[in-house]
C-alpha cells in the first residue's frame, strides 16, 4: 500500500527558505531605496505640476512650470554652462585617465602607486574646492604668486568669466581622474596578453597597437566611464557653491546650482522640481544614447 503526502519536496522547501533569508537581507536596502529614492522622485514629479512654497500647500497648476521654463533665459544659460563644463570635464578627464592607466600598465603595477593616484578622490569635494580656492586666489594665492615670480600677470581664475568654468572643471578633473584611471587600468588587465604578442609579431608599433587593439577592446569599460562621468558632471554643485556661487555674471551657474537657488533661496519648489525632472530626463536620454551608439554590450574580443 502506498501512502501519498501533500508535503512539498525537500528542494522546494529549501528554495523557499533561501528566499526568505534573501528577503530579510534585502529588506533594509529596499526600504532605504524606497524612502530616499523612489518616494522623493515621485514627490518631486508631483510637485513639478504645482505652485509650492513652504508658506502654502501645493496648488496644482498643470504645465505652467514647464511653459515658464521654456521662456526662462536663466534656465537656458544654466544648461549651456553645464554642457560647457561637461564637455571640458569629460574630454580632459578621459584622456588623462587613459594616459595614466597606460603608464601604470606599462611601467608599474605597484599598489602604492595606485593608492597615491586614488588619494585625491578620497578627499571630500568641499575640502578640495576650498584648498584650490585659496591656492588660486587672485591676490594671495600661491599659483598667482608663482606666476608673478616668472613675470606673468595674476589671473582671476574664479573672477573672470572666461576662466571660471575651465578652472572649476580643472579642479574636478584633478580630483576624479585617478579614480577614472584605475577603472581604465582594471579594463586593461582584462585584455589577454596573447593579443599584444600577436601584434608584436606582426610588427605593430606602440601607437598602432593602442589605436587598433587597446582602445577597441577597452570600449565596454570606456562606455561605463563616460556614462558615469557624464552623470556626475551634470550634477556638479559642491565646487560651484564653495568657490563662485554661480558667478561671475552667471558664468558658472550650472543647472544643479540654479535648481538649488530656486528651491532653497527663493522657495520656489514647484519650479525647481520641474527643472529637476527635466534634468533627469536629459540624463536618461543621453545615457541611453551613449550606451546605444557606443555599443556598450558588445566586445571586439572574439
Write the layout of secondary structure elements.
Layout: H1 10-47, E1 50-53, E2 56-60, H2 64-70, H3 73-107, H4 111-122, H5 125-135, H6 142-149, H7 164-189, H8 193-201, H9 206-234, H10 238-243, H11 255-264, H12 269-293
Antiparallel strand pairs: 1-2
Description:
- With 302 residues, the protein is an all-alpha fold.
- Helix content is 72%, strand content 3%.
- It has a two-stranded antiparallel sheet.
- Helix 1 packs across helix 12 and helix 4 runs antiparallel to helix 7.
- The N and C termini lie far apart (60 Å).
Task: Determine the number of helices (DSSP H or I, runs of at least 4 residues).
Answer: 12
Assign an overall shape: globular
Number of beta-strand segments: 2
The fraction of residues in strands falls at: under 5%
Q: How do the strands line up in the largest sheet?
A: 1-2
Query: Which structural category fits the helices and strands?
Result: mainly alpha
Termini Cα gap: 60 Å
How much is the average pLDDT? 89
pLDDT < 50 runs, ≥5 residues: none
The main sheet comes to:
2 strands, antiparallel
Q: Bin the helical content.
A: over 70%
Radius of gyration: 26 Å
> What's the SSE pattern?
HEEHHHHHHHHHHH
Summarize the structure.
This protein is an all-alpha fold and 302 residues long. Helices cover 72% and strands 3% of the residues. The chain has helices at 10-47, 64-70, 73-107, 111-122, 125-135, 142-149, 164-189, 193-201, 206-234, 238-243, 255-264, 269-293, and strands spanning 50-53, 56-60.
Amino acid at each position: 500500500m502506498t501512502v501519498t503526502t501533500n508535503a512539498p519536496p525537500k528542494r522546494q522547501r529549501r528554495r523557499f527558505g533561501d528566499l526568505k533569508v534573501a528577503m530579510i537581507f534585502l529588506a533594509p536596502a529596499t526600504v532605504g531605496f524606497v524612502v530616499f529614492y523612489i518616494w522623493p522622485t515621485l514627490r518631486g514629479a508631483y510637485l513639478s505640476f504645482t505652485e509650492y512654497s513652504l508658506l502654502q500647500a501645493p496648488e496644482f497648476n498643470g504645465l505652467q512650470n514647464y511653459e515658464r521654463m521654456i521662456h526662462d533665459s536663466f534656465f537656458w544659460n544654466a544648461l549651456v554652462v553645464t554642457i560647457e563644463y561637461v564637455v571640458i570635464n569629460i574630454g580632459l578627464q578621459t584622456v588623462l585617465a587613459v594616459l595614466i592607466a597606460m603608464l601604470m600598465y606599462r611601467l608599474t603595477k605597484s599598489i602604492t602607486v595606485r593608492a597615491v593616484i586614488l588619494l585625491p578622490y578620497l578627499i571630500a569635494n568641499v575640502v578640495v574646492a576650498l584648498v584650490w580656492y585659496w591656492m588660486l586666489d587672485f591676490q594671495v594665492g600661491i599659483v598667482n604668486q608663482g606666476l608673478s615670480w616668472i613675470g606673468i600677470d595674476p589671473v582671476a581664475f574664479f573672477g573672470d568669466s572666461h576662466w571660471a568654468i575651465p578652472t572649476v572643471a580643472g579642479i574636478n578633473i584633478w580630483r576624479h581622474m585617478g579614480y577614472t584611471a584605475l577603472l581604465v587600468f582594471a579594463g586593461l588587465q582584462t585584455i589577454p596578453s596573447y593579443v599584444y604578442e600577436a601584434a608584436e609579431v606582426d610588427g605593430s608599433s606602440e601607437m598602432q597597437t593602442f589605436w587598433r587593439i587597446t582602445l577597441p577592446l577597452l570600449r565596454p569599460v570606456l562606455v561605463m566611464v563616460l556614462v558615469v562621468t557624464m552623470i556626475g558632471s551634470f550634477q556638479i554643485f559642491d565646487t560651484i557653491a564653495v568657490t563662485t556661487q554661480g558667478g561671475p555674471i552667471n558664468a558658472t551657474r550650472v543647472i544643479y546650482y540654479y535648481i538649488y537657488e530656486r528651491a532653497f533661496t527663493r522657495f520656489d519648489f514647484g519650479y525647481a522640481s520641474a527643472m529637476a525632472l527635466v534634468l533627469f530626463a536629459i540624463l536618461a536620454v543621453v545615457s541611453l544614447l551613449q550606451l546605444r551608439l557606443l555599443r556598450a554590450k558588445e566586445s571586439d574580443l572574439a
